Amino acid sequence: MKDNHPKIKFRKNNESDVIWWVDNPENIGEWLFTFDKKQIFNMFRDYPHELTQKQKAIFDKENPYWVDFFKDRQ
Q1: Whole-number Cα distances in Å, 19 to 7, 33, 63, 70, 72
Q2: Residue 22 belongs to what domain range?
Q3: Of 57, 64, 65, 70, which alpha carbon lies 20 to 30 A from 14's?
Q4: Tell me, what's the pLDDT at 27?
């Protein structure tokens, strides 16, 4: 998914994080994130298979809860 919607907002859980979480008011309930504000991933569809090794390592470090949640996908 590419960022081409003016209502999309980006936020970080922690200032030091690499990952930006994407708030899209038109798609409530989706868990979207990005590393560069260009390529947007859907956590439930794309993690971990669509991430590079480096992206997965960053995601896992910043989101240990989700690593445990998706442990069957590892």
Answers
A1: 19, 7, 10, 18, 22
A2: 9-73
A3: 70
A4: 81
Residue 9 · residue 26 · CB < 8 Å: no
pTM of this structure: 0.84
Is residue 46 situated within a structural domain? Answer: yes
Does any domain span residue 2? no
Residue 23's pLDDT is 93
Domains in the chain, number: 1
Residue 15 lies in a domain: yes
The whole-number pLDDT of residue 7 equals: 83
With vertex at residue 51, the alpha carbon angle to CA 10 and CA 3, rounded to the nearest 5 degrees, is 35
Beta-bridged to residue 20, according to DSSP, are: 34
